[in-house]
Amino acid sequence: MSDTVIYAMYDDDEVLKDGAKKLVSKGVKVSEVFSPFPIHGIDPIIGIKNTRLGIMAFIYGLTGLTLATIGMRYFMIVDWPMNIGGKPSFSYIENILSFIPISFEFTVLCAAHGMAITYLLLNKTLPGMPASNPDPRTTDDKFVIELRTSENTKYSAKDLEKMLKETGMIEIDQREIK
Amino acid sequence: MEFKITSKAKTVTTVLMVVGLLASILGIVMNAGDHHLFTRIMANGLVNSFFFFSLGLGALFFLALQYATETGWYASVKRVIEGIAGFLPYGIGFLVLVLGVLSLTHGGHIYTWMDPETVKHDAIIQGKSAYLNLPFFWVRTIAYLATYYLFWTGFRKRSLEEDRVGGTEIHFKNYKRGALFLVFFAVFSSTSSWDWLMSIDVHWFSTLFGWYTFAGMWCSTMVVLVITILYLKKLGYLPKVNDSHIHDIGKWTFATSFLWSYLWFSQFMLIWYANIGEEVAYYMARIENFQILYFSMFVINFAFPMLILMSRDAKRNAGILTLVGLIILAGHWLDVYIMVSAGSLGANAHIGLLELGMVVLMLGLFIRVVLMNLTKAPLTPVNHPFLDESVHHEI
């Protein structure tokens, strides 16, 4: 199915926010907004759901904690018990205090790396991935709203363009996607 | 909007104070004849005067921190912070009273280094007496309290003046004074906790004790702040304070709980690992007489906020925040209680009518004073330069 994508460019994030509000109130679905920085408060306007990255961070952290515990128990208790500082080393639970710093560090390491990689992967911005923003200026000082006709069957591309032009945008662009 | 104390709040705080006073007197009468009674009264006096003083001081520190970092979001809750910091003069009064009585009674078995007879037979205290002696102790105590008090009156005066005058001149003056306060506070918060709390276990020392005490103070203050804001919002005040502000203070509660646990654990683990007699003595005193209280206190102050306040929704839920906050607050009071009691009363310490009565009395007074302070100025500052930013705070 062919799809017409319309990009409207703004030079101020507040103007874009007001424009998006106007469009949404008319029942237009905004499929994406490109910005050089996070625009606070845009998420509820264009109907983006809360991120579930936090839940993933918790799971990554739990994975790290488990791996660290299994690893240290094997290294320090099972495989090669060592006597450090006169503490008997035949029990993990009795020496748990000395294992806490590493458990903590490894939990943080796994949570942070897991979260960063997931974030980059979800946004398709891992190093080497092709850029998906419509205009390189959105990485500098411009902001872009993206509309798709396939998501706005109520309106034609012409109607959408007309509505966009009333919102204080500075440039408009249209592409056909097959 | 001007705040007025509801008659319900007046009744509740009065009842708290009266019940607390009666319970304290009853506790004293019931224990009359017990030769530990005086130490017990003074130890509890020290616990409560320090704990509630530290709530006011924590708020003053938090205010100075916002000034020094030129923060915007806090502007609409600034008056609540000031209301809590306004307990400082009362806290100073109680602390001076307790420390004064202890100084006049040779330390009252709490500060053994104040007793010349004990010092004569104790080589370790003699080695410390260049620092731990009565005149120098009072020089320091007065220096801390006077500095805190002067900064507090200055901040408050300029805050009220800003409401009338506006402009940015006062803002930049606050910025400089806030930074200066933090410099003093960085040193004083450590040394004052050595003087008032660490010197109870006079043979023992820990270099991170000051930060540990400070982290507990900060965490308790954040709890009091969020509960006060939720209370005011429930009454329909503070319309400009939104979920994001409450979420932010919830985050502070969460983060400072972690800071406190981190420092508690650092101190505990290093001493456990090194296993040196002089250092371990501190924890032996706690494990022998306060084992359940001491470790459950750690669980309350660490695991509880960590697991419950971790999610975003919990930090925006008034019910959860209040419940968790009250439990952490009790946990931190318990922390101060054990800090004082383990080194002074040891096996003779127990939480009875006297202890509970004094807390309830001080709590009633504290709430009343904070509410009274809130009535004295508009709840939202009028001309704060960052007010607009704060109103649009959104995270």
What does this structure look like?
The complex is a heterodimer of chains A (178) and B (395). The N and C termini of chain A lie close together (6 Å). Chain A folds into two domains: 71 residues, ACT domain (Alpha-Beta Plaits, 2-Layer Sandwich), CATH 3.30.70; 70 residues. Chain A is α+β, with helices and mostly antiparallel strands and 178 residues long. In chain A, strands 2-3-1-4 form a four-stranded antiparallel β-sheet, covered by helices on one side. Chain B is mainly α and 395 residues long. Helices cover 76% and strands 0% of the residues of chain B. The two termini of chain B are 25 Å apart. At the A-B interface, helix 4 of A face helix 10 of B.
Percent strand of chain B equals under 5%
Topology, number of strands of chain B = 0
The domain count of chain A comes to 2
SS field, number of helical segments of chain A: 5
Structural class, from secondary structure content of chain B?
Answer: mainly alpha
Could you estimate the helical fraction of the residues of chain A in percent?
Answer: 40-55%
- Give the number of domains of chain B: 1
Separate helix tally of chain B: 16
Write a concise synopsis of the structure shown:
The complex is a heterodimer of chains A (178) and B (395). By secondary structure, chain A is of the alpha+beta class. In chain A, 46% of the residues lie in helices and 15% in strands.
From the structure above, extract its key features.
heterodimer; A: 178 residues; alpha+beta; 2 domains; four-stranded antiparallel β-sheet; 4 strands; 46% helix; 15% strand; B: 395 residues; mainly alpha; globular
Compile the SSE list and pairings.
The complex is a heterodimer of chains A (178) and B (395).
Chain A: E1 3-10, H1 13-25, E2 30-34, H2 42-46, H3 53-79, H4 96-122, E3 143-148, H5 157-165, E4 171-177
Antiparallel strand pairs in A: 1-3, 1-4, 2-3
Helix pairs in contact in A: 3-4
Chain B: H1 7-30, H2 37-68, H3 78-85, H4 88-104, H5 116-120, H6 123-128, H7 134-165, H8 169-196, H9 209-234, H10 243-274, H11 277-301, H12 303-308, H13 312-315, H14 318-344, H15 353-375, H16 387-391
Helix pairs in contact in B: 1-15, 2-3, 2-4, 2-8, 2-9, 2-14, 2-15, 3-15, 4-7, 7-8, 8-9, 9-10, 9-14, 10-11, 11-14
